[in-house]
Amino acid sequence: MKIIEPSVQLISEIDGAEMLKAIERAGRTCYKSEDLITEGSAIKFVRCLINDNHDAMLEHAPSISIKFICDRGVSHEIVRHRLFSFAQESTRYCNYSKIKFSRGLTFIKPCFWEEDSEPYYLWERSMRMAEIDYIDLVVKHQVPPEQARTVLPNSLKTELIVTGNVRAWRHFFKLRTAIDSHPQMRQVAFMALDLLSSKIDYLFDGLTPPKI
Fold first, then answer.
1. 152 lies in a domain?
2. Residue 118 contacts by C-beta under 8 Å, 6 or more apart in sequence?
3. Residue 34 lies in a domain
């Protein structure tokens, strides 16, 4: 059994300046102001679009793909964003008793319990029992993974590639970094937001409440 921290990884190549220019080209079509495009005009124009809630123009930038490594419970929240496209590790076809999975399960460490606490101990014990039962079902009883997965818990690690345009990502961050979001959902949402904010100026500014 392995216990790991969640993580995010940028899958697509991002050129922030070109993304801003693509949005500007689309947006200025609406106003027939293409003649005002200059080398540095995209930043100011996109800021105005965002301030005026003209978010539809943000759909004209290239899509962004991010890989989330999180638990299954968090992934169930992410896939509710129907304007995204998804590819997810399948518990139906992945056989975790195989060597490539180290013959065991990997779980995401809960961010809200200290390792020396009673809740954490109870959680870890439950994960060990889930692993034992899963491996017994698949190896000892020759149950196919698609049936054995019924004993897998929400804390099971999953890998999820999420692809969407800038508008969809802005909506995602507004919802999933909110203070009342699930702690583990908020954790990976901030990871993704910090990652994109470091690559693209202005497009994701001012979306979220303070981190806790």
1. yes
2. none
3. no
Q: How far is CA 88 from the centre of its chain?
A: 11
Contacts of 28 (CB under 8 A, 6+ apart): 34, 36, 37, 45
- Statement: residue 23 has pLDDT above 80: yes
pLDDT value at 94 more than 70: yes
Would you state the structure tokens that stand for residue 62, as one six-digit string?
């290239």
- What is the extent of the structural domain holding 147? 1-13+63-212
- Number of folded domains that form the chain: 1
Model confidence, pTM = 0.92
The residues, any chain, with a CB within 8 Å of residue 42's CB and separated by 6 or more, are: 17, 20, 21, 23, 24
Is the residue at 22 inside a domain?
no
Number of helices followed by number of strands (H, E) in the chain? 7, 6
Model pLDDT for residues 29-56, shown as the tens digit of each residue: 998 999 899 998 999 999 999 888 889 9
**Residue 120 belongs to domain with CATH number:** 3.30.1360.170
Residue 60: CB atoms within 10 Å: 17
What's the CA gap between 39 and 42, in Å, rounded?
A: 8
* 19 within a domain of the structure (yes/no): no
Kindly give the pairing relationship between strand 157-164 and strand 85-88.
Answer: antiparallel
Angle between helices 166-176 and 183-197 (to 10 degrees): 140
Contact 161, 75 (CB under 8 A): no
CA angle 180, 165, 37 (to 5 degrees): 120
For position 75, what pLDDT does the model report? 98
